[in-house]
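Work Package 3 (structural annotation) set out to generate three-dimensional models for the target panel prioritized at the project kickoff. During this period the team completed the workflow that converts sequence records into discrete structure tokens, so that structures can be stored uniformly alongside our sequence database. As a representative example, we reproduce one entry of 429 residues exactly as it appears in the project archive.
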Amino acid sequence: MMHRSVSSSFGLLLGASLLCATPACSSSSSEGTPEQTLEVFNWWTNPGETDAAQAIFTMYEKANPQTHVINAAVENIDKAQAELQSRMTTGAPPDTFQAIGGWNLWEWVAFNGKDDTDSKLENVDAIAAANGLAAVTPQPLLDVVSYNNHVYSIPIGTHRFNTLFYNKKIFAQYGLTPPTTWDEFYQVGDALKAQGITPLAIGAKDGFYVSIVVWDGMLIARSGVPFRESYFGGTADPADPAIADTLTEMTKVFGYTNDDRSTVDWDGAAQEVVDGKAAMTIIGDWAKGFFLSQGWQSGVDLGAVPTPGTQGTFVYIADSFTLPLGVPDRAAAVTFLNMIATAKAQDVFNPIKGAIPTRSDTDISLYDSLAVQAISDFENSTLTRARPVLVKSPAFLADVDTAMSQFAIDLQVDTVVNVMKNRYDELAP
């Protein structure tokens, strides 16, 4: 993505007029008193995430004083998905909800396994067109928010899953270099252990974050992108030894991790890095927002490199927002989607969130050194979707993540392998 400084207006009225011709779309208050609400469903509840969300909500309310934003945030992505499932299937959808481009989004378009004729979402082609997304959004990002040549959500930011964050001051103090391979990781880890520092903090309370380390990082390092995409795409041998071999190596890595890993989530692991108890953590780069919220500076306190063995690969997701059918305040939702589609809104949101913008015409001067590097990496790396949107079965994901959480406690490789084999038919194309 080539980024350049721009000055642009929102184009909100154009997008709204293309999608709505009802009186409600022009509803306003002459005195600025909110006359309608906008419920935004999401799972942004950690420091950095909440700051970024509030920044975009404040931006929206300033431009639309007739509308009050309800931040319907649910802690933990799994709980959020369960609540969203309940609301969407009982006729009580939020005005808009966070979706990760790919199967996390497409499950609502191809609802009940059908095509988009039974979609629970409106397409947002008109909003995409009004904001020129086709011309400024890389095709891989457009692809994951589209289905049958229609756009079904508006992307706001791109995250990298395969990221190793490290405490630069610890590494400088002991003359260490961030590892680029797992063999280098063990060497660095031994040096850190000798100083009484935990090499790698992992938040394994939720198996989702252990899965990031293993399936969005280590499996690529050991077996490559094509195998990983084939396996999670449902076209490989479910008993392929590469799965057991990867898990076996992870049992070695656990010997370099925090003793409390089974009781903390990713933010707790990140806090251990901030406190100097641990030197590194592997997590999606949304964690950068957390580090910045703790007063750290990119390139000074915080360093980041790809997960060992994944240089040249960018494991990505696109955060986006949807327009469900039959929402209470459709006009407000349309206006919100038009806003987040703009370069200006993305430049407000992403520097705080730790993401990079999905548009290629944003102001790169607003982004720190780690973000600039991530933008360059996205442009020049092999791109592959993160596991949560590569896999089409939410049940498969949930069961594997549960198994991975237990794996972090008992290190039983066969248990995880059996879960994956027993549920593998759910991945059939």
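The chain is about 45% helix and 15% strand.
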